[in-house]
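=== Given protein ===
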Amino acid sequence: MKTARARSLRSATVPRGLAERLLDELQRNAAASGTALSPADATALDQLAASQLSADRFAALYGAAIEQLETQVAHGDGHAPMRKEEVALMCRCLLSCRTLAEAIRCAADFCAMLHPRAGKLDLIIEGTSAIFHMDSLRRRRSSAACLVDLTGVLCYLQLFSWLIGQPLRPGRIFLAHPRREDAMPFLGLFNASVSVGEKTYGFNFDSTLLTRPVLRQPAELEAFLVDFPFRPIGASPALMPVTQQVRGFLEAALAREQALPSQADVAGLLGISQATLRRRLTEEDSSYHALREHCLREAAERYLRHTDWSIGHIAGYLGFGSEAAFRRAFQRWSGHAPSRLRRDMPFDGKASAKP
């Protein structure tokens, strides 16, 4: 929320020295190229000296600085940088994925199409650890490239966490850049151990999260991209409401034609007790039963309107034990029989019955 982002840059959630490090790099590159700092950067320096740089101003400074540095670094590598529009398009593509694992592989495929501007992504699973690799394909390493690539790691950590509505909480961050001091104080953003001089950039996290469904909706993307990935509050995005998380699990199961998870299953997926789940849903004026019924009703109406499936087929697809049980439930939800909805809203030919 804007009120949260408007905290001072000096707050405990933002390691000290981030803005200073960015501006120092801009000054260094400006001197090397024989250019001057932009008026905005000069103003930021004045604000820094007076300790007046707000969190919103920092996010704007961070974005502008990385954009400048990325352009310079990419030029040195002989190609243009990845465009903002391409980042937004990749995020939109990932929203269509079912699980985090599928989203990460989709991101890897997307970046491969933009080779070498977007680098190379890879996902490796070793026991209980999932390891995300980001090879930036740099021809030469520099302190500016280090900041750009660090931001890339933060970008994917934020994006993957946002997609599933849960922080990945990496156990280790690894950097291909050999000089740890060039990455300071940005390392504090990750809240994890950091090793340098690795073959690639990346991080590891709990592999069980790979099966978590993508819960975010396209309508949420615009707000997410406002200051992505330049939030000064660390890599973990705010969790979505528990109501939306529960709906996400239910809708993911329906999409895969799986049995709907029980309240106990959902509580386990969220890592909380059933009592805590009930309390949080109550605080949001909802309940597991109400959400389950709502998801089933929405799906039933969708299949009645947009497929030529028989009512018995829809009943089985939604997990009802019989067509009669589905008819009773639909009567309870809407006050009329499913056949009436289909009669009032003729089939539009968008899908056909399964064999």
Q: What stands out?
A: Residues 2-224 form one domain.
